[in-house]
Amino acid sequence: MTLTVLMCISGILLLLCVFANRISDNFGIPALLLFLALGMLAGSDGPGGIQFYDAKLSNYIGTIALSMILFSGGLETLWSEVKNVAARGSVLSTLGVFLTALFMYISTYYILGLSFEVSLLLSVIVSSTDAPAVFAIMRSHKAELKSGLKPILEFESGSNDPMAVLLSMGAITYLSQPEFNLPDILQSFFRQMSLGLLIGFLLGRLAGYTLKRWSLSYAGLYPVFGVGLVLTTFGIAELLGGNGFLAVYLCGIFLGNTVFLYRRQMIRFHDSLAWIAQIGMFLILGLLVNPHELGEVTWIGLGCAVFLMFVARPLAVFACLARSKFDTKEKFFISWAGLKGAVPIILATYPMMIQFPNSQFLFNLIFFLVIISVLFQGKTLAPLAKWLKLDKKD
Length: 394
Known about the structure:
394 residues, Na+/H+ antiporter like fold
């Protein structure tokens, strides 16, 4: 495929995704699902016929895209709203992810009868709430939730990916290296979380101080500064052993809550960039899957989705929010907002990269589960808020 053809196809797919958002608004179909569908149609089993099987490249593209999305989410997060739910949000993004994985493992291994390896990897990979999915659906429906629900959902979904990444990498290392033990996992967890927090805080404050004290020569350089900051923050955090996703999100929060010249323009640019990253990420992941292989995981995937949506996630949320200010309706809504999106699919590429046994089956299973989550939970999230009378508009 020549560069000209590749550019033409990429442009057409991006334009189709733009109009797919209009379809999403008119028919209530989650836009993320349409992006995945377009990628699948362009892939090997669709009319597009693009042969794409590079899990490593998909992982790289997904990692960069997710960093941009998390940074944009951080920029738009108002600390004045988030600080009141930061404590409970932190519990949800750490203990909540662990409990979701634990309950999911028990369900898949002891009830559905999946193998130990598949059950363990599946449980940790789908344990977190996906920030792009939550941000996009909340934004597309213009939801205005009551009682601090929006801040805690944004904070949890933006900060719980590090825990899922840590659990996934720990599980892969444990299965591939038997000598890797629990103390090593705990040490890795505290190192990644502490360094991610520290680096995100330092670089976010430094960037905010720099832009507040010195103005750049041209307005167009502010978005360039933002992109460079994302890449630098993620890179430094990962090189030092911290979690890059957490560092980027925290950096975005600190910068977004600092007053400086062209701040609104930078936020708008990164919002557009987040859309491009989101569309590109889902298109690539759609290309990577072979739709004809999803038939073999349909029934087991439905079973996993039921346990995840109605058992594992609700149990984890109600345990973490016990004795909190949130009532039963609000806890149920938070449970239902545990959407899965690109992050589980990206994490599912790691076993494929090292050619782990049953990695293709695991990838297809997780891909199918994500589709069910986005379609079922994503489509019903806004109506559920209205039904529970949690939308300010009602």
